[in-house]
Amino acid sequence: MKNFFRLAVATAALSITTLAHAQTSLFANFQQIGSAKPFQFINAGINSSFVTSVTVPVNFFYRAPNSSGTIDIALPANLTITSIVNGTASVSAPTISQKLQSVEMVFTGTGAVTGNLLTILNSSTGTLGGILGDSGAGLEETHGVSGGVANYSSAYLDFSASTQRNYSLALNNIAAPGLANGPGNYLAGFTSDATGQFSSNGIVPEPSTVLLLGLGGLGLIMRYRRKENH
């Protein structure tokens, strides 16, 4: 049994360490809990912004490769987003886009694992947009492309060796008339639901991450013991 525990911990630690040597890869994503349209663009002229109207409960997932594909480590978390516009909207039918700056997203663990699961630092930028009249939109950024900036921090992952980072949010359930150009030539205000994903290269796990994944291995052990007892 001790050997089984050691193997579970070692395998989990090795899995996430391999991310440090891979090309840019998906390492985390989130799914909103419920559908209250807490993601909103506020058209307020030069003070327009994309924010969360409340703290949003989400399921946050760390992803790591293993021999059978990937391990998804689900963690309950709260999400907040703040940002401001960077210039007016750009309309090139059939699309519309709005540049953002000072983009900050904070995922804070609320379960057994607490603290900074992932933060998109407020030095980051993004582009919000999609098809005119659509009920869906996207917010995304790729670090280093056309001046894009996406900076990450985490209590569980070290991004100091990362040279390429990107994120994307899929916004949905935007009410009619959908995406539109609004007053002052800024994006028209809307509310939506969202999911998102985050990629990087050069990720190194902090020691606490090994412990986190070790706890995942402990869960496997408990299930194994229950099977032995039946």
Walk me through this protein's architecture.
With 230 residues, the chain is α+β, with helices and mostly antiparallel strands. The strands form two sheets. An eight-stranded antiparallel β-barrel has the order 1-4-5-7-8-9-12-13. Helix content is 17%, strand content 49%. The chain has helices at residues 2-17, 207-228; strands spanning 25-32, 39-42, 49-52, 56-66, 69-85, 90-92, 95-110, 114-131, 137-142, 152-153, 157-158, 165-172, 190-200, 204-205. Strand 6 and strand 7 form a beta hairpin. It starts with a helix and ends with a helix.
Helix/strand layout:
Blueprint: H1 2-17, E1 25-32, E2 39-42, E3 49-52, E4 56-66, E5 69-85, E6 90-92, E7 95-110, E8 114-131, E9 137-142, E10 152-153, E11 157-158, E12 165-172, E13 190-200, E14 204-205, H2 207-228
Antiparallel strand pairs: 1-4, 1-13, 2-3, 2-13, 4-5, 5-7, 6-7, 7-8, 8-9, 8-10, 9-12, 11-14, 12-13
What percent of residues adopt helix (DSSP H or I)? 10-25%
Estimated radius of gyration: 20 Å
Major sheet details: 8 strands, antiparallel, barrel
**Counted beta strands:** 14
Strand order of the largest sheet: 1-4-5-7-8-9-12-13
Class inferred from helices and paired strands: alpha+beta
Q: How would the global form be characterised?
A: globular
Low-confidence stretches: 1-22, 217-225
Mean pLDDT across residues: 84
- Distance between the ends: 17 Å
- Portion in beta strands: over 45%
**Helix/strand order:** HEEEEEEEEEEEEEEH
> Can you count the helices?
2
Feature tags:
230 residues, alpha+beta, 8-stranded antiparallel beta barrel, two-stranded antiparallel ribbon, 14 strands
